[in-house]
Design brief:
With about 425 residues, this protein is mainly alpha-helical. The protein is built from 15 helices and 13 strands.
Length: about 425
């Protein structure tokens, strides 16, 4: 679908957004860079850098440790961003491993800045696949699991900042195993387009490549732009769109499925209506007290979080800053993996967090069959102690069961309502099988 005349006019001639971009660019860069230097979890190698280079490293840290959740996949017991975490693609043995992003000379990221850009923009994988007996190394297929289809829309300046930060990290020696994906039906890469063509409206990308660009945010919004936003609110919406659609990967978790059947575009009819099931890694289950969780419905006109009577930025802010459903009594921890992602978002500057809220609030509501209530997360147990009165602990799945119910949605993620009580999912549960 081509961009509509009204949207093309907004992108081309909205002087308020362009002026705000220019005026806020430098001050925003300084503030984000300083916050980035403050929140880096490891000491950085910046003693030989110029002030400008050090500030770019800080901006990269702000993205890696604030607006994005790179550590969630790439950090491991070996060290910060040292990689080595397996991601099983199916039950046939296909698996990929998060990369070691540190500058370790033997096991770390050896990409040039140009290669790093190519990997993020096109999905090209520079990491070897598993050898097969008596054969050469298979042709390397594109990156999977890694949300490069979201990150590719970042500006040049922000990608350069991420690369600079990764090069300033302390090196960690950690050998990452080769992947096993060479026989999957995947291309080598996907060409980066000249326009944003991932949503319901195709829009040309602005020529500027500045950091945290509101103009770019308007271009990469998957849904049509709201017509009732002006000036500061429009700029906040646009900045929030930039972060949500090129950094925080909201769509990857809160849209199910996140892309169309041919993977060509974002699944906009279900955009941000939740329903993705996540399996909590077994080592984390007793720590987080969760077994599996379903992403929340954010934009459903009837069941969406942003349409609840108590919705406000203050509530959203408190939930993110505390990583809990702070509006409940007693407050309940957020479900996996949002409980981890919120820990990063809690570190971002106040205007940026408010911009994310303004953007999601401004996205058109989802109606029809995609607007569904979502189950709460399944609670981990080893005894009945953490379960509620009247519940028991399933010995097979280590989750609390037995809650009174009238329908499946009243039970925890993947549980079913059986004779008025919530039952643990069976061994062949399609819901469990769909979990990421």
């Amino acid at each position: 679908m081509k961009s509509s005349p009204s949207e093309a006019l907004t992108l081309d001639s909205n002087s308020s957004v362009q002026t705000e971009d220019a005026e806020a660019g430098e001050s925003g860069f300084r503030a984000r860079s300083q916050r980035g230097l403050e929140i880096s979890p490891v000491p950085l190698q910046t003693s030989e850098l110029t002030h400008e280079q050090r500030m770019r490293v800080g901006l990269g840290s702000y993205i890696v440790n604030g607006t994005a959740d790179c550590g969630g996949c790439h950090s491991s017991p070996a060290g910060f961003l040292s990689g080595g975490n397996p991601f099983f693609l199916d039950r046939a043995g296909h698996v990929v491993w998060s990369r070691n992003l540190t500058p370790d000379a033997k096991t770390g990221m050896a990409l040039t800045e140009g290669q790093f850009f190519e990997a993020i923009r096109t999905g090209r994988d520079f990491h070897g696949d598993r050898h097969r007996p008596h054969r050469e190394v298979e042709q390397v297929k594109m990156l999977v699991v890694m949300p490069w289809l979201i990150f590719r829309w970042m500006s040049d300046e922000d990608l350069k900042a991420i690369y600079a930060y990764l090069r300033a990290l302390p090196p960690v020696y950690n050998v990452v195993p080769p992947d096993n994906k060479s026989d999957l039906p995947l291309p080598e890469s996907i060409r980066f387009p000249d326009l944003y063509n991932d949503g319901e409206v195709d829009r040309r990308l602005p020529r500027e490549q500045g950091s945290f660009s509101a103009q770019r945010g308007l271009a990469i919004a998957p849904r049509a732009q709201p017509e009732d936003l002006e000036d500061d609110e429009l700029r906040s919406y646009a900045l929030g769109s930039y972060m949500a659609n090129s950094m925080t990967a909201c769509n990857e978790c809160h849209t199910n499925p996140d892309r169309t059947p041919d993977s060509a575009k974002i699944n906009t009819p279900a955009y941000l209506s939740g329903g993705t099931v996540f399996g909590v890694p077994p080592p984390l289950q007793p720590v987080l007290h969760q077994v599996r969780a379903t992403s929340a419905n954010l934009k459903g006109a009837t069941h969406g979080f942003f349409y609840e009577p108590g919705d406000s930025y203050a509530r959203f802010r408190q939930i993110i800053r505390t990583q809990s459903h702070a509006d409940e009594s007693p407050p309940r921890p957020l479900g996996f993996p949002m409980n981890l992602i919120a820990g990063n978002l809690a570190k971002v500057l106040e205007p940026d967090l408010k911009a994310i809220y303004t953007y999601v609030k401004g996205v058109p509501p989802v109606t029809g069959p995609n607007d569904q209530p979502r189950q709460a997360y399944a609670r981990f147990c080893s005894t009945t102690a953490p379960c509620h009165a009247g519940e028991s602990c399933s010995a097979a799945t280590h989750e609390c069961v037995g809650k009174a119910c009238k329908a499946d949605v009243e039970c925890d993620t993947c549980q079913t309502c059986n004779a008025g009580a919530c039952a643990a999912p069976g061994a062949n549960s399609a819901c469990v099988g769909s979990a990421r």
